[in-house]
């Protein structure tokens, strides 16, 4: 998650005034007893042509590796910024 937060500060907010930039981190248990971890920014969003699962970016490769290690579902939303969500079984 550090990589996603770091990427938001580096890339997402370069067109926003500092006081308008928002980064949210949520950790909660779902109704189906899974753990959900979401990090969301209100920045400019990822380019449509970027496919995170196929990215050569070290940071995105780390996120994909974490997702596999947790046997999680990794979701990406591109509306109103960028939001990544990992959902995995509670152990």
Automatic annotation (TrEMBL):
It is an enzyme of class 2 (transferase). Pfam families: HATPase_c. The keyword Nucleotide-binding applies. Its EC number is 2.7.13.3. It catalyses: ATP + protein L-histidine = ADP + protein N-phospho-L-histidine. It comes from the Bacteria. Residues 2-89 form the Histidine kinase/HSP90-like ATPase domain. InterPro entries: HATPase_C_sf, HATPase_dom. GO terms for molecular function: ATP binding; protein histidine kinase activity. Gene3D superfamilies: Histidine kinase-like ATPase, C-terminal domain (3.30.565.10). The keyword Cell membrane does not apply. Keywords: ATP-binding, Kinase, Nucleotide-binding, Phosphoprotein, Transferase. This is histidine kinase. It comes from Nitritalea halalkaliphila LW7. The lineage of its organism: Bacteria, Pseudomonadati, Bacteroidota, Cytophagia, Cytophagales.
């Amino acid at each position: 998650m550090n990589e996603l937060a770091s990427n938001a500060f580096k890339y997402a907010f370069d067109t926003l005034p500092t006081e308008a930039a928002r980064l949210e981190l949520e950790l909660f248990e779902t109704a189906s007893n899974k753990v959900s971890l979401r990090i969301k920014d209100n920045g400019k969003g990822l380019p449509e042509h970027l496919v995170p699962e196929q990215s050569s970016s070290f940071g995105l490769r780390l996120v994909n590796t974490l997702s596999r290690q947790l046997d999680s579902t990794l979701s990406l939303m591109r509306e109103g910024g960028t939001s990544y969500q990992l959902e995995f079984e509670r152990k």
